[in-house]
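2 proteins. here.
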Amino acid sequence: MLNATYCTPDLTTFCGLDELGLTATGQQITAARAVIECKVIHDDTYCHRCGAQGTPRDTRIRRLSHAPLGWRPTILAIRVRRYRYATCKHVWVQDTRLVAEPKAKISRGGLRWALKGIVCQHLSMARVAESLAVSWNTANHTVLAEGQRVLINSPARFDKVSVIGVDEHAWRHTRHGDKYVTVIIDLTPVQEQRGPALLLDMIQGRSKQVFKSWLQERDPAWRAGVQIVAMDGFTGFKTAAAKELPHAVEVMDSFHVVKLAGTAAEKARQRIQHETLGRRGRTKDPLYRARKTLLTGEELLSERGKGQLQTLFAALGHRVVEATWKVYQRMVAAYRAPSPAAGKILLRELIHDLTKTFPDSLVEVKSLASTLTKRARDILAYFDHLGSSNGQIEAISGRLEHLRGSALGFRNLANYVARSLLESDGFRPVYTRNCEKPFNHPEASGRRAPWSPRR
């Protein structure tokens, strides 16, 4: 940095006050906080009613929380002048809308810092409130409202969406009330290999009508652009997609298909455990000890694991577990095939074999066969449209679980949806592209410009 060009230290520029139309006139640094005294750069001497030039009357101090300097909360003490025009007797104050909204407690610079902390650094709202020296309710209400305005309500958020995924998510774990939401994600970046999946929306409830209503609220041109809908085995989502998106290809994603087979293998193990021993599995029981080995891909098994399964299947009472395990392994092998075409052939053969008659003892296999046969077209469509997997929703759900843990739970669904949309990394590139310029100025949101004198 020997060739770097330095300039005179300037508190106004350092605190980002010039972007807010302020200039620093003093400072007061204590162990608890930093107070920056400043004044409005542009005079506002012309009457807002008649346009004539008025005279100064007095000065008042407006205090706003600003982006913190280091670990100290920063407060802006703005000297705002009041003017009066003698003829019409109108009194007005200097326009400070560039600094903050009327009656706001946080400056636009502070809001920009808070949004960046939540979107990029995943800060908790309590940490944001502490850094801004405001109450939690003030920080939560103001920051979420700003995030809703400049990020969530952006019309560009739904642009160029051609692949969507739909699934359910438990937003709270209580016995009473509706605890599920329907999650819609944008899988287009995954299929085009240009980024992670993006969270589009979360709607209260999980039913055919919930998803159908959400699709009906979208613009017809947007619905026409959706070419693929990835979903799990819930028929309600399939029916809603077929009704509102008849041109789209319905794909039952690989994550949930393999999960169906894994669940069948797990249920068969638990059922045989009860039938043979009359109780739940314990540490020394062979079936219980092999519970994780049964769900491991055959090519990934160690010699010890292979020996454990060989001993397990040698018992006559475990034939049902073995048959269900083989179905699960054939399904895993199909999705791990070297090419989509080969995988499609293997899975088609598996579905065809499952249409045959099975003994009544293979309860789980027969139930799985019924589901796979009904949704065969959707399941096989995955191999023609790689990247349309709802496994991305599980990744987003993991981040939302972390959010709910850091917030110690949510009682308000609207707050949870807003925080989830900001937390899921979809706005990180949008924010970083706009952070060089204060994108939340009044001019950027269509507000009227400050008063100018009449001519």
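next one coming up
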Amino acid sequence: MAHTAGSGGPAVRRGVPHGSEEQVAALYWEAFGRKLAPALNPPDVGRAFIAAHLQHDRGVTALTGGRVVGVAGYRLGGRALTGGGVKDVLSTYGLFRGLPRLAVLALFERAPGEGELLMDGIAVEAAHRGTGIGSLLLREIAALAADHGCRRIRLDVIDVNPRAKALYERHGFTAVRTEQTPYLRGLMGFGAVTTMHRQVTEADAQGAKEAR
């Protein structure tokens, strides 16, 4: 399922195209590397780990010239865009280096509620930021949520990313709670996490029909 957003604009499609795993991993690392580094460093190993364990059907991508320039991941049905379990971490990093990494990864674990699609975040290539790709990805996520019968979309945004929070607010997300996490500031660079919700609407359902 794919469509082109405007004349000459990026093609937005559901799913991660096979063969683009390294591109997606690089985008994710650029966007979330500070947070992921304590668990997946060094960067080259971390990017390779993400690429090797992507769940291709748990992302929405924006492509220009056949190359992925933006991605939005989500968790639904017990699976998220970024995969890899305990055995994968230990196999990659070894037992003694892997165990503390698993403890850090456990801090990221979240589960969607009933009737809820849980977003993992949006990553857009630096050269394409400010061109509307984030908005296109969010609209497709909303249509996808409607397609799956979800009533609500949930996401978390960190305090050092006000640009992302502003984007989500423009698309109807509202903050429902903020958790102070000063113990993570030194380790991951942020000291608070805000949870935001957005209800799935009839307009989203119409967008899902148009995307089919």
